[in-house]
Amino acid sequence: MFCLSPMKTLRRMPWTLSLFLAITATAAAAPPSPESVLGFRPGADRQLADWTQIVDYFHRLDAASDRVQVEEVGRTTEDRPFLVAVITSEKNMARLEEIRRANLRLADPRGLSPEEAERLIAAGKVIVGVNHGIHSDEVAATQTAMETAYALASGDTPEIREILDSTVVVMIPSHNPDGTQRVTEWYRQTLGTPWEGHDPPFLYQKYTGHDNNRDWYMFTQRESRLTLKGLYDPWRPQIVHDLHQMGARAARLFAPPYVDPWEPNIDSALIAAVSALGTHVAARLTSEGHKGVAVDAIYDRRAPRRGWPRPSRCRSRTWSRASVTTPACVPGTSRTRGRAEPGACATSWTTSAPPPAPSSVTPPATASTGCARSTK
Ligand SMILES: [Zn+2]
Predict the structure, then answer these.
(1) How many angstroms is it from 55 CA to the middle of ligand 1?
(2) Distances from the Cα of 257 to the Cαs of 82, 89, 149, 177, 280, in angstroms?
(3) pLDDT of residue 29
């Protein structure tokens, strides 16, 4: 089921293209930076923020910025807060409910006249869902969420302004807060020991562990249902950005075009639009010197892998999925998630800041495969 007409997608493409590329914020005074709250910048060596700290940061950002609304949409399996953060321009925020309802009307256009559709499209905004950290030991994603939110809340460049005016970003900072908390506690507990950086000896989602990303067709887990409640059902995003993390030697960002073949019921105009978006992202990031951006690789629409027959992997309520990988900023460790390459900061793709200086860390003989194991 798709929620956006191909023409709407194509018309808005110039706006949406820049979202993934232009988070180069000029910090304003008011919204607190993650570093000012945490005492370290997300991605710093051997530093991880736990879920309690991340929740605190997002509430502080909400209180300080008219661009940010943070809502606790429910409680997790282990009774932690599950957050959804909505980020857009101040002007859009003032008519947020109108934007949301217009988008829902377009998502189910039965009975909608062409004239009314055009009016809704003209007044509407692109809804961008960003899901972080469904796999909790792929730690970079959730750490990155704070930096991305801060960049959007504080940035004042023309590009940031255009992003904020053209889109509504609906962000889930952690899809699995229980795991975010417990993995961080395990990491801190094992720092300086032979177990530093190794996978924790427990499931980071109480019932399903790493297989929580197979729950998209059954919704058995509380976090899956909260994601529907907070993101997919109320917002029907046109773009979904799903942040995972690979090992240090794998590609870091997978962008469309996906590997053929596509599911035959997907409109060819949508395929073209998704491929154009991905190609633009890859071209810009690569031209800016970012390494590890892959297209036409691994993540395909082909049975039995990935999205075609298995809604467990394709977020069947949306039409686009980008799988992002970012390196862990935990050099000197073998996991949580993989030994980071020197200079490979978790937030490097979202900022224009230069990478940190290379360290003497030696990559492991066998790099973690990270999320790649979920292909099995
Ligand atoms: Zn993953």
Answers:
(1) 22
(2) 32, 30, 27, 31, 10
(3) 52
**Assigned fold of 34-351:** Aminopeptidase (3.40.630)
Query: What Rg do the C-alpha atoms of the chain give, in angstroms?
Result: 19
DSSP H or E stretch at residue 38: helix 34-38
Q: Where are the domains of the chain?
A: 34-351
pLDDT (0 to 100) of residue 288: 96
Answer yes or no: is pLDDT of 362 > 50: no
CA 33 / ligand 1 centre spacing (Å): 27
**pLDDT, tens only, 122-153:** 999 999 999 999 999 999 999 999 999 999 99
Average pLDDT over residues 28-34: 82
Cis peptide before 337 (omega within 30 of 0): yes
DSSP code for 76:
-
Q: Give residue 244 CA to ligand 1 midpoint distance, Å.
A: 4
List Cα–Cα distances, 65 to 73, 104, 284, 365, in angstroms.
20, 26, 29, 45
Cα separation, 183 vs 138, in Å, equals: 10
pLDDT at 218 > cutoff 60: yes
**Residue 291: is its pLDDT beyond 70?**
yes
Mean pLDDT, rounded, of the chain: 78
CB 235 within 8 A of CB 127: yes
CB 216 within 8 A of CB 121: no
Q: Which pLDDT score is estimated for 261?
A: 76
CA of 134 to the centre of ligand 1 (A): 7
**Residue 215 alpha carbon to ligand 1 centre in Å:** 13
Dist. CA 33–CA 37, nearest whole Å: 7
Question: Ligand 1 center to residue 139 CA distance, Å?
Answer: 10
- Phi then psi for residue 320, to 5 deg, are -135, 140
Residue bearing tokens 């992003």? 163
> What does the pLDDT read at residue 255?
86
